[in-house]
Amino acid sequence: MVLLGEVFPDFTADTQMGTIRFHEWLGDSWGILFSHPNDFTPVCTTELARVVKLIPEFKRLGVKVIALSCNSVDSHRKWIEDIKSYGEVTGEEFPYPIIEDQARKLATLLGMLDPAEVDSQTGLPMSARAVFIIDPAKKMRLSILYPATTGRNFDEIIRIIESLQLTQKYKVATPVDWKKGDDVMIDPSVSDSEAKSSYNNIKTVMLPSGKTYMRIVPQPLDA
Ligand code: BEZ
Does residue 85's CB lie within 6 angstroms of at least one atom of ligand 1? Predict the structure, then answer.
């Protein structure tokens, strides 16, 4: 299992787009690796179709996406036709790779297996809906695990990428329900004097403790 801030494993895997070596495939991009429980299932079909629609947005953010399930490349190729039909996707080529992991080597390495979700034919556990975000230095910056019965919200995943990219560039943190363009908080590690030299429009919220940690500034705009 990989922890936040650790270098993500440089695995080799087969996909319907050929064999990839993860770090080489990522190059200088950010990456999202997301797993799903099974090919030919309804919620997974909606998710993979939504990711196809979001590819221009991911490109704008400099993010490559790759999916994974414990099915074969042959199964992925057949299922892709369903995803394209459901998502009304035009064009021949499916725009991102889906990793095959029938042996569950990667799903085990990455802690994706869901003991509550078992293949009805083999009795083997399937992968949960995991999301890993990896930065251009190949470090894991976020991981979330959802159960099979709850489809993911990819607007939230885009929001997370926007927050990660902003907070990597500036010493700020994004508050609850933040959206791109909203005000942000100055990172608690920044001293008041350093904050004053960097920002001239700090709103400090007065609190009963008398502490001045709620320092709000407009989002830096060139992010
Ligand atoms: C689905 O993708 O619809 C699904 C997969 C496994 C269990 C439940 C739902």
Answer: no
